[in-house]
Amino acid sequence: MSDASKYSPGKTCGPACAGHQALLVYILTTFLFSWSFWAPLAIEALFKFKTWHFPGQFFFASFGPLAGGIAASYYRGGRSAVTAWLSSIFCFRFDRELVYLTGAMLTAYLAVAAITSWVVTGEISSLRHLGQTQKLPGMPPVAVLCIWMLTFGLGEESGWRGWFYPTLLQRNSPIRAAGIVTAIWMLWHLPAFAFNENYQEMGWGIIGWAISLFFGAILLGWLFQKSGSIIPLIIWHGTFDLITASEYLPAEVPMIVSAVVVLQGIYLATKTVKK
User: How much of the chain, in percent, has pLDDT values that exceed 70?
Assistant: First the structure.
């Protein structure tokens, strides 16, 4: 097993490279990459001004955090640092128990989604809408899952958990590091509030969204520390998006599934504080 607590992106080029500058490179690159794709969509939605866009533009922006990790690693130690970082976070050697744990969590989320859908609609067949979204019209759930994993799963987790979180852990506790990740993570989504109906309809629900992001960051940070790899996180993130971004499921489904994630995060936070 690769233990993320032993891996520190800042150590690839010596202590002199660690510090705020690399974090700034990461954040600026992440935002610049993602917002360059989301900004045209936001401008068009806000001002009804025709801008450039192409199929999959929304999803392509998800690779901003990955681009940030590459840029920050290169800043610290050149191509060798980038290679070392990528080979570390994409490691497939981790405990079998983590595979079972990740599978159990995702199975539980799907079960919660099915039960919630059944209770709200009175029919279990409503779960046939799993994965259906206007962003990927007409695609079967398996194809939608693969797209979520290969875009937001891969793009986000490689950066937020694979680079940003372990770098923050060098000078912060796990809970504080998760809080910083959450704040930057939320700000990163800002342009999407102009064109994404799911975000626009939040209202005061944005408070619940922030809470779920925070405790989700604790959960995913813990999972990365245990595995030392983003592979389980890619699968987790893709499956979570498959459920919560299903626009034709009852609105209660993403709320309840997110609540389960919050409970997991609270449990892990409690254990961390006790230590």
Answer: 92
Count other Cβ atoms within 10 Å, centred on residue 124. 12
pLDDT in tens, 62-114: 999 999 999 999 999 999 999 999 999 998 887 778 888 999 999 999 999 99
pTM of the entire predicted model? 0.88
Cα distance between residue 233 and residue 133, in whole Å: 22
Report H helices in the chain: 20-47, 57-60, 64-89, 96-121, 141-148, 154-159, 165-168, 174-188, 192-195, 197-200, 205-227, 231-244, 252-274
Closest CA to 174 of 124, 241, 239, 220: 220
Separation CA 88–CA 126 (nearest Å)? 41
Residue 104: exposure state from Cβ atoms within 10 A (0-12, 13-18, ≥19):
exposed
- What interhelical angle do 64-89 and 20-47 show, nearest 10? 140
